[in-house]
Each structure stands twice: as structure tokens, then as C-alpha cells.
Amino acid sequence: MDLNALRLLVRVAETRSFTRAAGDLGLTQSGLSRAIARLEQQLGVRLLQRNTRSVSLTPDGQVLVDRAGPLLAELAHTEHLLLDRRDSPTGALKISTPSLFGRKVVMPVIGELTTRYRELSIEAVMTDRVVDIIDEGFDAVLRTGVINDQRLIARPLAPLRWVTVAAPAYLQRHGTPRQLADLQQHNCLTVRNLRSGRLVDWQFMDQGKPLDLTVQGRLIFDIGDALVDAVLGGFGIAQLMEFAVRDALDAGHLVPILQTHDGRCRELSLVYPPSRQCSPKLNAFADALGQVSW
Q1: Name one Pfam family in it (predicted).
Q2: Which of 140, 129, 128 is nearest to 94 (CA)?
């Protein structure tokens, strides 16, 4: 049975007029008449009784409309549901984010998203390891630095700002460095880059120019989370992204030092394959992340 012709029949029955039904449907009267005639021929029964003033259903037409009307309405409702699902965040979203940024910034975002969208689930891999976005099946990853992989789309986010900090208790014991050279006399807490195996240089501005400084210390970590704990414990001086220690700075648990050399930032991007760029769940995550300041 031609469902489209059936819809046309129901509309004619509702309006009791070929003229009004054709106008509502955006068809010509002749096109509407031919479609219903084909349906009558297919079923082998007469469905409409026509006269010069109006049109009405035959008994067979009435039976068909009574049975088909609710089914067509249900089909239309189902179609709207599917369209809504296409435009709404549903299903599983798999993302990767650096550990510390994930805990401090991404966690509240994904928690709010799963509360707002009941049919959305999120798998968040919080690691400082560089994952393979394609081979490991990620929808998107958050990465710092310049993205050179032309196979991927990189959506820029607000950059991450470096700050150099220490606990008041440490500074009381060891003094406060005033110049970059003073760091040689302090225990500088450092992180080893998992990819290169090298200690991560500290990043400063010196007389308006960027300066990468190699520092020394007796504590080396592999992740930023431990670095935050160590500097809060008063074990030494650390350089971290501002988002990681903002609460501690506001509370006075840490204090900024060498502020005349601040100003260095690091690029941050949401990276994903081109096949994901129209994904409602990814767009919802990207939009929510873009509204957060760090």
C-alpha cells in the first residue's frame, strides 16, 4: 500500500475538500486526485464519494481511514523522535584528556552533560599518555601544543597559562627567589615528559622574549597531579598551569613568585577525526567546554 497516498486520503477526509487538502499539502488538485485514484485501483475499492460541492468517504474509505489514521500518526511521531535523536546528544562519547586538566576542568563539564542529557554516556580516559585517537576509538581528545596531524581537526580552546608557585612554609624556610638565577638555589619540582623522556623545562618571559629554563630538583614526577600535591606539601617550588592551582592561590595555600617573568601560555585544542565533526554529542561537549574559563 502506498503510504503517501494513504496520508493524502486522510487529509482529504479531514478537510472534506480536494481544494483545501491540495492547498495544505502543496499539491495540485489533479495530482491529489490521481494519487487517490491509484490507491483505489491498488485496493480494488472506491474510497471517496465525490459531488460538485463536497467529498466524503465511502464505507470502505471510512474503514481504511479509521484504521490507518492512528497508524500514520504513530509513524509521524516516531519520525519526529528519530529526528530529535539525530540532533540531540545520545549514545557513548569516548574522550581523552590530560589527567590534571581532566580532574580540575573536564570532570564538572562531563558531569553536567550527563545530567542534562539522559541518553548520553561518556567514557573519559584521563591520562598524560598520548593516545592514538583512531586506533583506540576515541571520538575526541584534548591536546596541548601545536597540532600538526593534517588528518585531524583541531578546534582551538583558551590557552593554558603557566604560573610559578610555592607554599608559604617553603618560602619561610628557604627564602623567596627574586630573579630567575635564584632558582638554582632552590628545590624545583619537575615532571618528566612521557614521550621524550626529558625533564620539562620551565617557561618564562625575559625582557619580553620567551625563555625556556632547565631547572634542577630532588623530586621528579610523571604526572601533574603529584606535582600539585608536592608543592602544596611545601617540598619545593613548582611551575604549573594556573587552572591547577587557582583554588590554592585564592585560599593562600600557595603564593605566586617571579611574576615579572609570567606570560607564557600553551595552546590547547579539542582534536577529533573529520568523521566526528557533525556529531551532536561531540558538539555538545565542545560547546560546554568552550564556556568554561581556566
Answers
A1: HTH_1
A2: 140
> In the structure grid, which three cell numbers stand for residue 257, read together?
613568585
187 and 57 assigned to the same domain = no
Nearest to 291 by CA among 115, 100, 140, 108: 108
Range of the domain at 203: 160-266
Looking at the structure, do residues 166 and 190 belong to the same domain, yes or no? Answer: yes
DSSP state of 199: B
Instruction: Give the residue-averaged pLDDT of 35-41.
Output: 90
More confident of the two residues 129 and 269: 269
Q: Please tell me whether residues 67 and 198 are part of one structural domain.
A: no
CATH of the domain at 171: 3.40.190.10
pLDDT bin (cut points 50, 70, 90) of residue 214 is very high
Task: Looking at the chain, list the stretches that DSSP marks H as alpha helix, in order from N- to C-terminal side.
Answer: 3-15, 18-25, 29-43, 59-87, 99-101, 107-116, 168-174, 224-232, 242-251, 280-290
Question: Which residue reads 497516498 in cell numbers?
Answer: 5
Residues 6+ apart with CB under 8 A from 222: 128, 191, 192, 194
Return the H-helix or E-strand segment holding 92: strand 91-97
Distances (CA, A) of 74 to 1, 6, 87: 17, 14, 20
Q: What is the DSSP letter of 188?
A: B
* Mean of all residue pLDDT scores within the chain: 90
Residue 49, domain CATH: 1.10.10.10
Domain total in the chain: 3
Residue 174 main-chain phi, psi, to 5 deg: -115, -5
d(CA 197, CA 209): 26
Write the pLDDT tens digit of every residue in 85-118. 556 798 999 999 999 999 999 999 999 999 999 9
Residues 140 and 236 in one domain: no
CA-nearest of 290, 289, 292 to 124 is 289
